[in-house]
Design a protein that fits this description.
Elements lengths: L9 E5 L3 E5 L5 H5 L1 H16 L4 E8 L5 H6 L5 H12 L4 E11 H9 L2 E5 L3 E3 L12 H10 L3 H8 L4 E2 H6 L5 E3 L4 H12 L1
Parallel strand pairs: 2-3, 3-4, 4-5, 4-6, 5-8
Antiparallel strand pairs: 1-2, 6-7
């Protein structure tokens, strides 16, 4: 996979110390690409270097993709993914994740690394595969799940690899808001403004 993996990846910077990293609709080949994670890591470094106070990360994954394939696609870059997630958790400002479609595997862990999560009506959140085989989530991700979700059955569902639909994720406390797909970006922006 070459630099084509970054075709839909954009970073928008606004004057008021606010950045939006838009991952587009990354395919399995994109998520497997080292360039994809290196680019995100560099952008996060720049956000912190320039004192940004708000960061939104968003993506929309098409439903046609196979759950297990998508969830396992990024095991090749586990160390890089861990660094990116660590950068998000230590970001000094407000972080919001806005997801549409299937937010699985390491993309789900990116969502968990953010302080707030928003999902479109169509969104599903989860690891997407049974843990302990080829996929081992970061300790931070497991801790966030246990701290956020009060319902033991929902925790078990996620750990067994079944994604939660947006309404269920909201009901158990995993995400902050469920919105119409066409309001995903604007809702994330409003939330980031309110809590900054």
């Amino acid at each position: 996979v070459d630099s084509a993996c970054l075709e839909r990846y954009k970073m928008l910077i606004f004057r008021d110390k606010y950045a939006h990293i838009f991952l587009g609709n990354p395919s399995i080949s994109h998520i497997m690409s080292k360039l994809f994670w290196e680019k995100m890591g560099k952008d996060l470094d720049n956000c912190e270097l320039h004192g940004f106070t708000r960061l939104i990360i968003s993506c929309n994954i098409e439903h046609e993709q196979d759950h297990k394939t998508l969830a396992n696609a990024d095991v090749y870059n586990e160390e890089l993914v861990g660094q990116v997630i660590s950068q998000i958790t230590t970001f000094p400002g407000t972080t919001v994740f806005a997801g549409g479609g299937e937010i699985l595997g390491r993309l789900f862990e990116i969502a968990l690394a953010c302080q707030f999560r928003i999902g479109a009506e169509c969104t599903e959140f989860g690891f997407g595969t049974t843990l302990g085989n080829s996929y081992d989530p970061l300790d931070h991700s497991l801790a966030v799940i246990r701290n956020l979700i009060g319902d033991p059955q929902s925790i078990q569902t996620i750990l067994l690899g079944t994604p939660l639909k947006a309404r269920s994720a909201f009901a158990c406390g995993l995400i902050s808001e469920v919105v119409a797909f066409d309001r995903l970006e604007s809702s994330a922006d409003l939330l980031a403004q309110r809590v900054s």
